[in-house]
């Protein structure tokens, strides 16, 4: 998971969401979840409201519309961060919408929303907080480790260490290392297009979290050991203009 910047919705869509929230609120409290679910699935809502929501979420998502939880598969579903069943009044709350793949959304997360003793979410919302405050990724293994209770719950609920993801992250790390070496070779040859191509290849591959965690770990005093890369790659990960290009 990486931090995601939430973009504004077109005014007409935001207004429509407010109307739909009011409609859910007008139902009796015990009927609101069913009302929200029915409204969410209503043909007019699916055909008119979902597409613009999905478009803005796709613009916010890493790489080619990747899932905001796993970073691997295409984000196909509009996910309710706080499930509709638990808080129907947030069914049409833009701040509660994320883009997720069907595995993360429908098979793993579903209606799960762990909270602590005070009722605060124990699930990372990448649009409001930095996932790296809660999660440590070891790129050479592709495995996440929870730094906080919220990090540990997020790994469990979203299945962030499922084998297909850990293998994918190991592969993504290889691509990052190769692209960094190509960027350095292109720079030595004075080839701006070559440098750009290396950056774009990294930025558009799945698992944006791998490169971002490598850039962060590179600033750690124990970076060489933690990252398991040679001094040249470590130098590149610490090169300001390359870092800016990869994080832009
Ligand atoms: Zn996913």
**Count of runs of 4 or more consecutive helical residues:** 12
Beta strand count: 4
Structural class: mainly alpha
Sheet-strand content, in percent, reads: 5-15%
Rg calc: 20 Å
Largest sheet: number of strands, sense, barrel closure:
2 strands, antiparallel
Which term fits the overall shape? elongated
Identify every distinct bound molecule in the structure, by name, code or SMILES: zinc ion
Helix coverage percent = 40-55%
The low-confidence runs, each spanning 5 or more residues with pLDDT under 50, are none
Oligomeric description of these chains: single chain
As for the number of domains, it is 2
The rounded distance between the terminal residues' Cα atoms is 16 Å
Query: Averaging pLDDT over every residue, what do you get?
Result: 95
Going across the biggest sheet, name each strand in turn.
1-2
What sequence of helices (H) and strands (E) makes up the elements? Answer: HHHHEEHEEHHHHHHH
Structure characterization notes:
This protein is mainly alpha-helical. The protein folds into two domains: 11-113, no CATH class; 163-247, no CATH class. It is built from twelve helices and four strands. The strands form two sheets. The chain has a two-stranded antiparallel ribbon with strand order 1-2. Strands 3-4 form a two-stranded antiparallel ribbon.
């Amino acid at each position: 998971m990486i931090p995601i910047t939430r973009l504004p919705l077109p005014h007409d869509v935001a207004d429509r969401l407010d109307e739909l929230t009011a409609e859910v609120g007008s139902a009796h409290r015990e009927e609101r979840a069913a009302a929200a679910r029915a409204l969410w699935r209503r043909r007019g809502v699916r055909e008119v409201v979902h597409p613009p929501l999905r478009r803005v979420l796709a613009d916010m998502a890493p790489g080619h519309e990747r899932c905001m939880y796993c970073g691997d598969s295409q984000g196909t579903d509009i996910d309710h961060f706080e499930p509709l069943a638990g808080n129907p009044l947030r069914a049409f709350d833009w701040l509660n919408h994320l883009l997720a793949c069907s595995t993360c959304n429908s098979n793993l997360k579903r209606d799960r929303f762990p909270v602590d003793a005070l009722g605060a979410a124990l699930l990372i919302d990448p649009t409001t907080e930095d996932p790296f405050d809660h999660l440590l990724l070891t790129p050479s293994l592709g495995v996440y480790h929870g730094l906080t209770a919220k990090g540990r719950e997020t790994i469990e609920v979203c299945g962030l260490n499922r084998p297909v993801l850990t293998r994918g992250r190991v592969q993504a790390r290889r691509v990052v290392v190769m692209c960094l070496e190509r960027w350095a070779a292109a720079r030595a040859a004075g080839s701006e297009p070559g440098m750009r191509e290396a950056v774009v290849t990294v930025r558009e591959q799945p698992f944006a979290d791998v490169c971002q965690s490598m850039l962060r770990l590179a600033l750690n005093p124990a970076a060489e050991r933690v990252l398991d890369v040679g001094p040249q790659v470590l130098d590149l990960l610490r090169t300001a203009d390359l870092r800016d290009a990869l994080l832009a």
